[in-house]
Design goal:
With about 250 residues, this protein is mainly alpha-helical. The protein contains nine helices and no strands.
């Protein structure tokens, strides 16, 4: 068996694994959202802890299928988010604060990755986006503040990290930018629930739907950003492996 054939076989196997994991994430997400719509607590509690580990495994495998490494903090960001998902399911105040802390650590990972990828290179754009999100943050925190009680300080501090993710994600393209905006929307819906504001029809469904799409967009956007710089410079001698790897990355992260 030639080296080229072996390479294609290995990359093909990794691509199938990445696609299978993405399918698993999509199916588990659909089951979880269905459980929210049908008020099926057992299915809701069973599916939620699996969501972010599946997306993390897909992200790492997709990067490997492209012959490169995923951003080092991507899997930790997703797994920390998964830990937050589990803690928030427990329902008591201590678990809620611990879950918020786990998500805060995930946002630190995201912001670090976006900055390392050059999200703040365009300073003018970064200032405009920062001003827009800072205004939105100040308005929303100001509106929520009277109704948050003892959660005022934790929510305000956490929301600053959340806004930082939104700001830096916008500097890496539309995919990550939309992911950051949806993450902010999802957690804003949680905050309005904490403040006991009037809820939307299917409020919890919309919290999770925007959250799941946000995480997928952030992860896939980071993988594409990590792939892009090196693709144009690939030497002609490795065209077959390069084309196979690039196609694998695009297919696995689509």
């Amino acid at each position: 068996m030639s080296i080229r054939t072996t390479t294609r076989a290995v990359l093909g196997g990794r691509l199938r694994s990445a696609t299978g994991l993405l399918t698993g994430f999509a199916a588990t997400s659909a089951a979880h959202l269905g459980a929210l719509l049908t008020d099926t607590p057992a299915l809701r509690h069973a599916t939620k802890p699996a969501l972010m580990p599946l997306l993390a495994a897909h992200s790492v495998t997709a990067a490997t299928a492209a012959g490169r490494e995923a951003p080092k903090l991507l899997a930790p960001a997703l797994l920390l988010s998964g830990g937050g998902d589990v803690l928030l399911q427990l329902g008591d105040d201590t678990a809620f604060l611990a879950g918020m802390g786990s998500f805060a650590a995930a946002h630190v990972c995201y912001v670090t990755m976006f900055v390392r990828q050059g999200a703040l290179t365009d300073r003018r754009r970064a200032l405009i986006v920062t001003a827009a999100y800072a205004t939105a943050w100040a308005v929303m925190v100001g509106r929520l503040w009277p109704d948050l009680g003892g959660l005022r300080t934790p929510v305000a501090g956490y929301s600053l990290l959340l806004a930082s993710t939104a700001v830096t994600s916008a500097g890496l393209g539309w995919r990550t930018g939309l992911g950051g905006a949806l993450f902010l929307l999802s957690d804003t819906l949680i905050a309005t629930k904490l403040a006991k504001w009037r809820e939307l029809p299917g409020h919890q469904f919309w919290i999770m739907a925007t959250y799941l799409l946000a995480q997928y967009l952030l992860a896939s956007g980071l993988l594409r950003a990590a792939e892009a710089p090196e693709t144009p410079r690939a030497p002609r001698a490795s065209t077959a492996a390069g084309v196979t790897g690039g196609s694998a990355a695009r297919a696995a992260t689509a």
